[in-house]
Specification:
The protein has 7 helices and 7 strands. The chain has about 190 residues and is of the alpha/beta class. It has a single domain, classed as Spore Coat Polysaccharide Biosynthesis Protein SpsA, Chain A (Alpha-Beta Complex). Helix 1 packs parallel to helix 4. It is globular. The protein starts with a strand and ends with a helix.
Length: about 190
């Protein structure tokens, strides 16, 4: 039996280091969040944003509100899992503009072939990315318990859940500051020039 999958893009952050909404930064042809949402949808078969619905209404994408605004990405994961759409939930942060559909599909394939609570990305530098991962719906109780107890570290939760990691040969950029965005634009222009 084919497991149901759901896709989510987290857009609930304050983008305080960037000074403007990261999700709405211009990508190759549309905003970052629109480009990423289309890749997540291609991999999972559907997509919803998790954040402030009124902020993203103009994009025409479904948006689920955080249940506990201001508590960071763990609250976004809670809202995605609470939606109860699927057993396997592909959750990606909006500040990872280089994530490809093929990688998201690999994450889902590994999640389907294992009973692990979570399958997360680990890049070539050994950095783990809990916001480029597949979470089973049965993680919800652990996520809620962590939030209830003020433990907001997603990395800590992954350790508790015994998450497994899929190793990427790429380094994965989280773009959080104007400097990182400028560097990302320069890399993109350099690859387009070739």
């Amino acid at each position: 039996m084919r497991e149901m999958t759901a896709g989510f893009v987290l857009v609930g952050g304050h983008s305080s280091r960037m000074g403007r909404d990261k999700a709405l930064l211009p990508g190759r042809s549309r905003s970052w969040v629109e480009e990423l949402a289309s890749r997540v949808e291609a991999a999972a078969g559907n997509v919803a944003l998790v954040g402030m619905p009124q902020r993203y209404a103009a994009l025409g994408l479904e948006c689920i509100a955080d249940l506990r605004p201001g508590l960071g990405p763990l609250a976004g994961i809670e809202a995605a899992l609470q939606a109860g759409r699927a057993d396997l939930n592909l959750i990606v942060a909006c500040d990872m503009p280089d994530i490809e559909t093929s990688w998201l599909m690999r994450l889902l394939d590994v999640a389907k072939s294992t009973a692990a609570a979570c399958v997360a990305t680990r890049d070539s530098a050994g950095v783990t990315h809990p916001l480029c991962a597949v979470y089973r719906k049965n993680c919800l109780a652990k996520v809620q318990s962590a939030l209830d107890n003020g433990r907001l570290s997603v990395h800590e939760l992954l350790r508790e859940m015994g998450a497994i990691f899929l190793d990427s040969e790429e380094t994965i950029s989280n773009v959080n500051t104007p400097e990182e965005w400028k560097a990302w634009q320069m890399r993109r222009e350099a690859t387009q020039a070739h």
